[in-house]
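Issue 218. Parser rejects a valid record. Input:
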Amino acid sequence: MSKRFLPVVLTMLLPASVLSQEDFTIVSSILQGPATHVLVHRDICYVAMCSKLLILDTSNPSDLKPIARLFDLSPGAITDIFAADNYVYVVKRGKGLVVVDISDRSNPKEVGSIAFEGRINSIYVADGLAYVTGTSGKTPNKEGWLKVIDLSDPGHPRELSTYNFEG
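Output the parser choked on:
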């Protein structure tokens, strides 16, 4: 009985001892509500809070400054964010891709969108193209997909191709 008890005690104590050795310090905090995703790009922090987007100046990490809040983004919870050039690309559960113009950081504007079926998981942008992953269908027959979106006209993103795979 004591041989089975010792691993349980060690398992319970080990995480506590590892955590107690860490020295965590919160430098600054400014969020209001649940934050689900974060992206930092060029001293600017983009924080997804359900269907809202908060934009912060992080040039001084000890003193975060809010730049703007977007509360009126298309409905749906944000599942990923990507920033490139003067745009932030936001993918939303059950809605698709939303393009936000951030050339004026204090006055960001939703300029375009494209809808997708299913659950959108992630986005990556390179060379004017967005690569968006997601799933469609219901368990156990979920199918995954990768969509390539042309962003050459940010106000009118358009789907170039889709690759479907079983998942």
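Fixed in the parser; the record now loads. The mean pLDDT is 80.
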